[in-house]
Amino acid sequence: MHDSLERITAEIVDCRKCPRLVAWREQVGEEKRAMYRTDDYWARPVPGFGDPKATLLLVGLAPAAHGGNRTGRMFTGDRSGDWLFGALHRAGFANQPTSMRRDDGLQLTGAYISACVHCAPPENKPTPLERDACLPYLQRELGELPNLTVLVCLGKFAYDGLSSILKFRHRPRFGHGVEAPLPDGRIILCSFHPSQQNTFTGKLTVEMFDAVFRRARELS
Fold first, then answer.
1. How many domains does the chain have?
2. Which domain holds residue 143?
3. Mean pLDDT for all residues in the chain
């Protein structure tokens, strides 16, 4: 059967492989955070999205409980997304610097965003079994994005997951700005994740983050 991004998206949204993640994402959607009590939470797996002709793929860890799990789009409606889409906009990959809702007009040009795990996990920590159950979706997305030249990993979890898919064993140690050339000519570019534990502490600055996407633009 012919695969496609549309088919992968549909399968992701309907997925119920991991009981712990199913229970958590739905519990969060029912209990809600006080500031979002009037929102209708998505509370399902969050699919990848972006430009099918992308030369740049961004790989994250998993949707945030009150971000993507609420809005239904990766990095949408949370602080990490503010950092990510601001950087993508400044580098020319996004038409606007913010992403608050699925219908807010955001468009990516030359970029596609996905994750190793598509459900919000408790404490933002998927188990190895949950990661391994979800990684085949990312592998299939890679197969449907033939123009990719740069793969940006947002955090070590994403780097390890993507390396597992690509069977990239003798890779450089993860670090911000590390470049890891693949045998097929594509390049993995590493970045600290734009989580609040990194941005609030100064471990990741705007200039550091922008430098990653300027480099991604050069490579793509």
1. 1
2. 5-219
3. 96
